Amino acid sequence: MTYLRPRATAAVFIGHGFLAFALVAAAATRAGLSRERTLAVGLLAGLFGLAPDVDMAYAFLGVLEPTGGSAVGSFWAASTEIHRVVTHSLVVGLVFGLAAGAVASERRLVQFLGAGALAGVVAVAFAVSGGLPAVVVGLLAVTVAALARGARRYDIAPTAVTVAGVVGLCSHPFGDLLTGTPPAFFYPFDVTLTATRPNLLGDPTLNLLAPLAAELATFWLALGVYLWVTRGERPLLHVRRRLRTRAGLATLFAAFVVVAPDPTLHTAYLFVFSLLALSLAVATPLPALDVRSLSDLRGESFTTGVTGLAAITLATATYTVAYLAV
């Protein structure tokens, strides 16, 4: 039995880490952890949430060995060979999350059992799918072990490491459900939750805008939780105080509807890069206007980040309205 996928267009959902951070940090706050400990556990969950995409390391072979097209095309073509398969399984995520807590334990026997669980999953991947999937699962196992050992150095309790690991690793596949080939949720078992990406809106462009909106929502959620933990219970007020009003210029992005082809998941690069360029242009602090002295640089990174995020959100929203209206 093999789980290597046929070539297909890949899209990357980078909100996994933000979602895991928000969920775990909010739970940690409710559980009574200190601010510093809450942020540490939330950050750990965010890193676990990003870990399954370690399988993208294989895609760099596409750049080293191009298939005749551009380097970018070769990269994405190689990524679809193994991406969202063995490392995006709920079964693997659950076992690795529990193993992370064991590796972070102070007891040698428990550490040994955790390491054995990681190695056992790699062995199963080799037996079921062959060498390449086993290597990719091995990369994830090393990443999980490194995060667990790092958490131990910062005195994060094994129970907290387990929660962060399970939430981060098991929430990741669901974020990918709307952005390309569905993950193999129950690998190594031959059970398919869904074989195709849900076509909820029936329109290629709206099927791009929907996951983009979901990703932006994870950014705002993570920001809200962070401000709630560090500033109190009114995060929106803090955002409003630091937001530059010129973020409103991003509404002009609606003109993209008439000057560029309709973007889809297959051709999202120009659209996304245009959003990022607009965000950078709007959010970058201007000398003499935003920064007059070195003291003005205090908190500037937060202001720039919030303004950029607001600009992308406004641009996406106004583009969606314009697209529906045209």
From TrEMBL:
It holds the Pfam family YdjM. It comes from the Archaea. Coiled coil: none annotated. GO terms for molecular function: hydrolase activity. The chain crosses the membrane at residues 85-105, 117-144, 156-175, 208-231, 243-261, 267-289, 301-325. Keywords: Hydrolase, Membrane, Transmembrane, Transmembrane helix. This is Hydrolase. It comes from Halosegnis rubeus.
